[in-house]
Amino acid sequence: MSAVLERKQLRQRSDYTYKFNSKTGRHGWLRLTPAYSLKIVEELIVGHEQAKRIFDPFCGTGTTVLSATYHGHEGVTTDINPFLVWLAKAKTAHYSPKQISATREACASTLDLVRNQSIEPVPAPPIHNIERWWSAKALDFLRLLRAAIPAVTKEHSAEHTLLLIAFCRSLIELSNAAFNHQSMSFKDDGSFDIGFDVDMASVFSEDVRFVIRGASENPTGEGYVVLGDSRNPAEVVEGMFDLVVTSPPYANRMSYIRELRPYMYWLGFLVNGRDAGELDWTAIGGTWGIATSRLTDWTRPADYFRSTNLSTALDQIAHADNKNGAVLANYVAKYFDDMWSHFLRLTPVLDHNAELHYIVGNSTFYGTLVSTERLYAEMLAALGFSEIECRAIRKRNSKKELVEFDVVARWK
Length: 412
Hints:
Layout: H1 3-14, H2 35-46, E1 53-56, H3 63-70, E2 74-79, H4 82-92, H5 97-116, H6 130-133, H7 136-152, H8 158-173, E3 177-178, E4 185-186, H9 197-215, E5 222-227, E6 241-246, H10 256-266, H11 273-282, H12 290-295, H13 308-318, H14 325-346, E7 350-361, E8 363-365, E9 368-370, H15 372-382, E10 386-395, E11 403-410
Parallel strand pairs: 1-2, 1-6, 2-5, 6-7
Antiparallel strand pairs: 3-4, 7-11, 8-9, 10-11
Helix pairs in contact: 1-3, 1-9, 2-3, 5-7, 5-8, 5-9, 7-8, 8-9, 10-11, 13-14, 14-15
């Protein structure tokens, strides 16, 4: 297969659902990061043809594992979020022509139930201020559609999975949400009109066709997606890996759980706000809901990473002229303590001479620059990694000090 065709197929699968303009990963039917992230990962994978097993301990939507499988490698990835694990598994699965045909037929049967309103709609998910997300008309359509999909497909079947992914795409396209900046916002009341029900059905039909086009192109390698905590990868994956390509959460207080809420509520991965907060607290970098309130009383563990650079930054943030300085300092400290735990427990699954690539950006808090890439480099050096580099990739926005880096290292 030519490199051009591989890249075309890879991008087809990576486009399966509508985008959030966030940093969770563009691959896999939810476009959660910009195209440059896909390009960076592809270049790293292509540039390491000799790699046998490739590991991504921060799966997101599966950018690395899908790229690895499309280039014939074995890819393994983990994530603590069960929705992202489900999504990445769907992206890396192989679909037969029979399953693709069954999905088309299931789509037609699903929309028949919706148009005839011959099925009881599911309850609206308990999303706070749900009326900001969807108009009453759109909400009625989505409730019927969500009920119809399991009525015409078997749970865990290929057609069930593919229709749910198309549903995820449609629920965002029919929403009142806007994604024209780093996080999300909502369009002004009265400025949103999704049209008639037939238009909504057409949206879903087109999304199914879009998903099917991507699912029809099967990767040549094998991908494995595992639910697990990146702070102890050896618990859930078996080594050894000779290449790690990943993009961990940034130290920027951006809650990926918050961004993923509509999908997770509609698909049953979340049932209430407390569950969302608990998952955010468990994740590295989570600061939403109860995760924020718990930071007030959080204290660093005894085995935290000792760094003069980090201590200086934490002191400056804590004593900034802002009432939230102490909480934010705890947030930054916890983020790096979690990453230190990750690096400490990564080495048992690394093969001799394994190469690491961590795509991450620096951050600022009340005018204090937190050089994440340098702190990663310090941690890796303390653990005995060599050939450590912080390669600047691009500016992240108009602030000249915010830059994205590829932190490179080699295991001994």
